[in-house]
Amino acid sequence: MQKIDHIGIAVKNLASSILLFEKLLNRSCYKIETVESEAVKTAFFALGNDKLELLESTDPDGIIAKYIAKHGEGVHHIALAVTDIEAEMKRLAEDGFQLLQDRPRPGADHKLVCFLHPKSTNGVLIELCMEKVDG
Ligand code: ZN
């Protein structure tokens, strides 16, 4: 693990949350991106070396919509940057952590990602993310 890459925050309305966080952080959102495979629309804010990611569901049955229905808006996941996602997934699986995917999948912000089940990480949804090499 290298560092915290970003903190993901589940929101009901991305447009109004962008305005709120622009006011809070006193800076503009630098990227808005939809990830079709995850049914989310995301917005990123840079904060020092870290980032905040706002996530709005694009599908009433999507993971973020379900999360908000159950827990309300708020902190959804912590993303940890890794240099070799496959090696980390193997290491964590061997150490008894429950991975939510068998292989890394494309995430927002030019990343490959894999999530760990919160049951195996003290209730915190952890995202491993690695910068995509090309593309
Ligand atoms: Zn994320």
How is the secondary structure organized here?
Elements: E1 3-10, H1 14-25, E2 31-35, E3 40-47, E4 50-57, H2 63-71, E5 74-81, H3 85-94, E6 105-107, E7 111-116, E8 126-131
Parallel strand pairs: 1-4, 5-8
Antiparallel strand pairs: 1-5, 2-3, 3-4, 6-7, 7-8
Task: Describe this structure as you would to a colleague.
By secondary structure, this protein is an alpha+beta fold. It has one domain: 2,3-Dihydroxybiphenyl 1,2-Dioxygenase, domain 1. The chain contains 3 helices and 8 strands. The chain has helices at residues 14-25, 63-71, 85-94, and strands at 3-10, 31-35, 40-47, 50-57, 74-81, 105-107, 111-116, 126-131. An 8-stranded mixed beta sheet has the order 2-3-4-1-5-8-7-6. β3 and β4 form a beta hairpin. The radius of gyration is 15 Å and the shape is globular. The relative contact order is 0.20. The structure holds zinc ion. Zinc ion is lined by residues 6, 8, 53, 77, 79, 127.
